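Table S4 entry, Major facilitator superfamily MFS_1.
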Amino acid sequence: MRSTESNVTQSITQVIAASSLGTLIEWYDFYIFGSLAVIIGQQLFPSDAGASALINTLAIFAAGFIVRPFGALVFGRLGDLIGRKYTFLLTLVLMGGSTFLIGLIPSYSSIGYAAPILVLILRLVQGLALGGEYGGAATYVAEHAPVGRRGFFTSWIQTTATLGLFLSLGVIVLTKNIMGAEKFADWGWRIPFLVSILLVVVSIYIRMKMHESPVFSKLKAEGKVSANPLKESFQKRANFKMVLVALFGATMGQGVVWYTGQFYAQSFLENTCKLDFNESRYILLWAIVFATPFFVVFGSWSDKVGRKWIMLTGMLLGVLCYRPIYQYFLDATNVTEMQKTMLLSESEPVIERGLVPDKADSLITTTVTKTLTNGMTFKESKVEVITEDVLAEVPAVQTVIKDVTLSRESYIMVILLVFFQVVLVTMVYGPIAAFLVELFPTQIRYTSMSLPYHIGNGVFGGLVPFIATLIASFQGSTPLSGLWYPIGIAALSFVIGAVYIDNRRDENVMD
């Protein structure tokens, strides 16, 4: 008996390793873009685009999420017709090729608006590919897992999304530190895109050696493969009801918690709180390192107590805690007020002269680095436009704060608060693969689970950075106004899930 269990465990371990590596690389490819949104925006749009460059870049980033449901339909159908293995092998090739090509596209200064258009096309291909990847990997692992341990084994696949983000951040920070900020912003940002092709080749080689899911192989041998997975998934009333329950009661709320706790947290710290580039990424890296094991903890726990209340508790805590957390981020980085009583020293001013784009006016930027008594530092730039037109109004001097570094106490506290948000991510995300595969029969599982997952994550979740940033830019809004979007979606999903979701613990038959 012990030998049999050892062989099963070894087989599942190999399945998880092969599936997870490919999925991790796909997430890495997908998230490099979001992690470099500010720099990429400066490359894709005119130099005088200002804040609109970031919003437009986030819109391109969001486009990759919007098409994920279409990828789920296309590749989900293929997965239910020809098998899990070859379908998510194809998605890996598409994702890797698109990412590599993004690293080669010239900037706006070279080809004008063709640059963002080409990047948008490649982001759409990435989104389609990712729409087919996750459902295949989660289904593949779940169909190998023994009854009673599906939550535990599929939770390893769940770690790949966060680890892919971790890997992308790590490669970006390492590349920037080696090259220096100036070269990285000029052309070095392309390196993380280009090196991904090496990771993809390794993953393709490993996946080629994988065998088809035993559950699907049995179904195929018996001639029970679905002839029309799309029709069976969405025209059969009972199954379509489960698709809607999965979307509105689980993946919709899970998606906004995921992207608020990781992507919007980083975007908010960097763009709203003006944290230093490396500082914001180190915070997220530490939070991810400490929180990632909880994917497996909550996935395994869901095998014992059920999936429902673990996921819904994560949503509820997000609804209750997001505004206090992000208010602390604002307070901890409000150097404008702090320097009134805590200014310790400031550097000699650095004066830069230039021209206003498309005008003859001169631009003078005077920057000083200030240090507060609590150890915080920041750069304060005063920007003044000098015009030769004697009749022109005297322009006001604009003050810009950037590159804030936190005091030791605030730094630790911000890490803990981001860590808490990532723990909420592990609560909603750790059990959800097992929850989804158990909802649907084998012959239409790939299609049925992929669509609600990718609408919930790709549309509701993936749009969090864009919609939240857009809301916060409206006249009369506050920096916290954008949080009402994820809070509202998570609250709605909590209510629907509490009413309509069953607390499953491996009750469904997997064949």
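The chain has 22 helices and five strands.
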